[in-house]
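Case study 2.
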Amino acid sequence: NRFNEFYWVNGSTSIVNSQWTAKDDVHTIKAASTISYNANGGSSTMAPTYVAYGSSYNVVANSFTAPAGTSTTYKITLNPNYTGSTNTTKTVTNVLPKVFNTWRQGSASGTAVAPGASITVTDDIVLYATWKNGTL
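Prediction:
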């Protein structure tokens, strides 16, 4: 086989402007890496991004839909604060919404990577959305 392209030979890189013959000491170079996104409990999809191997990549913002919130019960005591009054206690259940927290690289407990951060891409990467309870 004859090629005219970038290749790796004996630990160094070369660009070949003329044809060369493939030998046992020639190895494949990965030209692009894939950045994939995992909703990690959320929904919808985010298309993968393809990045040149060894280049910098600015992590994108999350566009997944957050998972369902967490139901929380609160006990509220109302005190009219006058002589002879009695406190009134009410129990209220509310659902705290989930909101995006940060990306995690490699697993849902991997290294935190904030949207907008620059990372150097040296392999395929999966970024996992992580979620936290929002506020009322």
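The CA atoms of residues 7 and 14 lie 6 Å apart.
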